[in-house]
Amino acid sequence: MFHNSTISPDSTYIRPHRRGKHKIFIGMAPGVGKTYKMLEEAHQLKQDGIDVVIGVLETHGRKETAEKALGLEIIPKTVTIREKVTLQEMDTDAIVKRSPQLVLVDELAHTNVPGSLREKRYQDVEEILNAGIDVYSTVNIQHLESLNDLVARITGVVVRERIPDRILDEADAVVVIDVTPETLEERLREGKIYGSEKIQQSLENFFQRRNLIALRELALREVADTVEEDANTSPLQGQTCNIRERVLVCVSTYPNSVQLLRRGARIANYMNGRLYAIFIANPERFLSKKESLHIDTCEKLCKEFGGEFLHVKSYNVAPEIAQVAAKYHITQIVIGETQQPRWKRWLKGSFTQRLMELIRKQNIDLHIIATEK
């Protein structure tokens, strides 16, 4: 459990004035056992005297999951009737009023029915956390916003229900529930994930072996990256720990920036790394309409590749790139060959040489890409 509870003699739980702690169980696909593991931990905590309730549980007809929930208090859902159809949602207000120490919330990326107070279930979870209640929740890797385009390319499926990356970043604990693709396929064939009518269709589509391998790697890398971020923000004499490659593409007003971005995206994709792009604007120089449109195009392209675009104002380009590289723990920098006239290079020195000097101690690889004029 995340905190020491305070129990008074009459067994009333006294809530400390703090935000609740959030633990997320994440997996590569439905059926890996996220909900089962969450329920398993909940039973153990209940035995230890923790006040645990189920806020919402989606069993999808899975017998083992339903049986695992027995013995845990369930907060009744809200019920609304629309066009003679009964719709149910998690009752956030009832959970806050009940005020348990821990609440279990399945399927974090779920979209609430129209007319609900909050559009998404993760927003309900934030409300519960703000009330000082701890939350255990579950989600699959394909529901993470930043991975949406990549997941669509891998699986051919555009995931509509997504959660912002910050939800994972802000979580107090993230646990990967990992099984091999072979085990998951076996569970699917045995009818432990979906009904018999959906088994073959699933195996031929989302649950193809190559999809599962790629999604599994995404899930493991995402959590490894979270661990790395924690390591890099811990006060260990300023040392950093780079588990995942990070590629920074330096774009400019020159047309070759689009080529650089594509090359940088390929490098990042090949290394399963993160992509960043940076444009450093001179504070005293206004961009023309054509130049502004070009930078906008670069930003859109960067985001299409799943990258983060950084727009910075500075008089000193090379030192600024080195500073950003240190801040974001960049491991690879991509620049174009210099467009400076030869006389300027003689006069001021090579930009590439200056940048190399600045990043020499950061253990960063520099890629100088020859592009079409």
From TrEMBL:
Species assigned in the record: Calothrix parietina FACHB-288
List the Pfam families: KdpD, Usp
Superkingdom of origin:
Bacteria
Question: Any idea where the Signal transduction histidine kinase osmosensitive K+ channel sensor N-terminal domain is?
Answer: 18-227
- UniProt keyword Protein biosynthesis, yes or no: no
What are the residue boundaries of the UspA domain, all occurrences included? 245-357
What PANTHER family does this protein's entry cite?
Answer: SENSOR PROTEIN KDPD
Can you name this protein? Sensor histidine kinase KdpD
Q: Which GO terms describe its molecular function?
A: kinase activity
Keywords in alphabetical order: Kinase, Transferase, Two-component regulatory system
